[in-house]
Amino acid sequence: MKFYYYLLVIFLLVSCGNKKEASTEAETTLTPAQQLSMRLQNIVDSGKYVYGHADDTAYGHTWEYQPGRSDVKEVAGDYPGLINWDLGMMELDSANNLDGVPFTYMANEIKNQHERGGINSISWHMRNPVTGGNSWDVSDTLTVKQVVTPGTEANKKMTEWIGKTADFIGSLKDSQGNIIPVVYRPWHEHTGHWFWWGSPYSTPEEYKQLWKMTRKVFDEKGVNNVVWAYSPDKIPSEELYIERYPGDEMVDIMGIDIYQFGAEDGIEAFRENVKSGLGIAAKVAKDHNKILALTETGLESLPVNDWYTEVLAPAIAPYPIAFVCVWRNAWKERKPEHFYAPYPGHPSSENFIEFYKNPKTLFAGDLKNNY
Ligand code: BMA
Q1: At 291, is the secondary structure helix, strand, or coil?
Q2: What is the Cα Rg of the chain in Å?
Q3: CA-based, 20 to 30 A from 173: which of 3, 66, 205, 306?
């Protein structure tokens, strides 16, 4: 009897060992991007979502570039689960991005966020390659057409610009030299009128070409650490959500950007916009078998003290999002009213701690331990 028992133990040990080997092998054959996609899918399957904050560890309401600091951590005790970074001005070889963040600092903070278990996402407010203005320069309505027409100056310039972002993203590494996967969300809010790539200034086909040329450059360089996110601004219909969608082979995450404007008087419209916009995105994401996210949101200055628990959390609760990301907390010497997460002493702080304690919200520590 004892003999059979030992045999059974040996058999179990051997088969567990094999399984472990098999799964390690499977993990190593996945690209960094596939690993992050799986992680995001696991998060969705758990019924929880990651809380994100743009530029979180670069600066906050009362400070700039002090390693280790974060308004979110100083209020809630942990770093956000996701931090968004912006590559605007990288195209001009500037040392700092459009909001002043040095790209070397950014790369280091992406590493820190990754090593604490968190996720990074990246957006790109790039200049207008035809006028020389910024992303918001919509004075030339043919910019997109020129950019996507092979052989034009604008097309050459943009191909180079995309190459610079691909090199940066492809070079993001942790302390062990492993490539760090990121969510990348180029050409965002294209259903709005404020960026030169917005829908009034291009045909759907031209807009899709922007994506195609971007993917071509990244693929040719062999960049394999990008989970691609598509994120229109709020839209009234499924048709409009999909009208400029570049295709299932280009996109991993279907997102949407929806902000609240106004204080108490803006709550109802925000609820409606999330219900319709995120509802549409959720349906389309399901149909296309993609991950859903609320890629940008927020209420500037947080004039509604319980916004996080009474407005945001209930509005997004019905939808299977992987993450929700609020915009940045600008340093008060630059833009005093421009913040979306509370800082210590802000009247919303207590409420934010409640939001942090909500079992559905995931911060960096939760991700490190469980996902
Ligand atoms: C906007 C504002 C701007 C900023 C831009 C890119 O929403 O925050 O101040 O330059 O995003 O980050």
Answers
A1: strand
A2: 22
A3: 66
Per residue in 64-93, pLDDT tens?
A: 999 999 999 999 999 999 999 999 999 999
Ligand 1 atom with least separation from CA of 54: 12
How far apart, in Å, do the first and last CA atoms of the chain sit? 42
For residue 209, the CA-to-ligand 1 centroid distance in Å is 25
3-state SS, residue 50: strand
Residue nearest atom 10 in ligand 1 by C-alpha distance: 99
| Segment 187-206, tens digit of pLDDT | 999 999 999 999 999 999 99
Q: Look-up: residue for tokens 């996080």?
A: 308
pTM here is 0.93
Q: ∠ at Cα 234 (228, 236), nearest 5°? A: 120
Q: For tokens 């040392």, what's the residue? A: 95
Residues with CB under 6 A from ligand 1: 86, 98-99, 125, 327-328, 338
Tokens of 319: 């939808």
